[in-house]
Amino acid sequence: MKYCLLIFMLTNTVKIFAQETPHIWFVGGTVGFGHSKNQGIDGAFSGQEGRQTRFIFSPYIGRVVHKRWDAGIQFNSSYAKTREALNEDNHELVDEGWSLGGGLFFRYNMNPNQEKIHFVLEPSVNFYYGTSETKNRDVSISRFETTSLVLGLNPLCILPLASELKFLIRLDGINFSFGKAKFGTESFTRKRNFSNFNGLFDLTQTQVGVEVSF
Fold first, then answer.
1. Which of 7, 10, 134, 154 could form an S-S bond across to 95 if both were Cys, CB 3.0 to 4.6 Å?
2. pLDDT tens digits, residue range 32-44?
3. Contacts of 199 by beta carbon, 8 Å cutoff, 6+ apart
């Protein structure tokens, strides 16, 4: 009898939540493009100081689990190219690389009752694999490969465009990464562990995207 009563209460709770939240699932994606000068490249790339161009694409699917909380799975891909000018003979070192990854994300809606714009915090945990290669006059001089785990906390702004459509702005927040790196020339001759903390809120890493609920 107790179990029947408990199941009945849980069923009613789910029904009430479903009535209050008709669109429980959502799917979307964000993209980012940046061109800047910086001291280096985080994550899977080992660029040096110079001009950097970077493209990021992050599709995802998730579910509303509470009025304030969402959870889901995301996939991440990025491409980066850095050019370092060498003054001695007017040519450049070129570092080019990419990374692929995926993991879990959660969202905390700070103002769920607001209809115009929602401010959201997004903690996440992602696994990445990346590789890059540095060339001098089109000759490979070093290769770099990493596997890493990244813990992140990013702020989001979500603007509802319709009942099932939203526009997103994802800002670069705080992240901590750690993992293993292999580097060398033709073969990976050296290995090391690494860790990195980033809390610069770099605006060049801003992503925009759309989300559809169903």
1. 134
2. 998 777 554 444 4
3. 173, 174, 175
